[in-house]
Amino acid sequence: MAIALLILLPAATVEGGPLQVDVRSGVTAESMDLAFEDQTGDHIAPPTTPTTIPSRPAASPVVAPARDSAPLRVSIPRIGIDGPIIPVGIAADRQLDVPFAQTAGWYEHSSLPTERGASVVAAHVDFDGQPGLFFNLRLAAVGDVIHLENPDGTTLSYEVSSVVLYDKTDLPSEDLFRASGDHALHLVTCGGTFDRFERSYRGNQVITALPVS
Fold it and tell me: How many CB atoms lie within 10 A of CB 115?
């Protein structure tokens, strides 16, 4: 049985209109509650019932991915995150095809690191009883530096501007997957209270980071 992290992708990112997507996540033997916090670090009450993401209106047509220019590696030195990235899309079972365990997935229809709009990188918080690549993402803080390694050997640096654990009903998917505006990097994983009946976490941990000039 899989743990699902639900993200509604805007229609601009998938063919055929809005789509509620289950992001695969592996079952951990001792799944834990990853406490909800606001941006100041204060604890807030987790939701008390399972949640889903509401549908949204259609947007612009899907844009072909540029896999050859996708980032190859992500690291956040202060909290010990360092792992490879591979491009991912939507699998036949309507799930965002996040790689196993210690590999992150760059959503292939999100913006490249050099483009306007948002780049989206997702990874597991846990998998098959072990911590996933983004297990420590909840420890990120404003001001932390994130590095993305590119295929040409260059490294792009970002500074974390916000750290938010959203209830799934409050996930700002329009902004998360936006294709316009100033460039930003969004790192996403599961978080919050673990619902043992639904076999999923009730929240989405989202880190937003801006390029270091």
Answer: 14
* Identity of residue 196: R
CATH superfamily of 3-39+72-211: Sortase (2.40.260.10)
pTM of the model: 0.74
Domain residue extents for the chain: 3-39+72-211
Q: What is the pLDDT of residues 7-42, one digit of tens each?
A: 555 544 444 433 444 444 444 434 444 543 333 444
CA 159 to each of CA 105, 141, 144: distance values in angstroms, whole numbers, following the listed order: 20, 10, 6
User: Residue with structure tokens 């899309």?
Assistant: 89
Burial 143-179 (b: 16+ CB within 10 A, else e): ebebbbbbeeeeebebebeebbbbbbeebebeebbbb
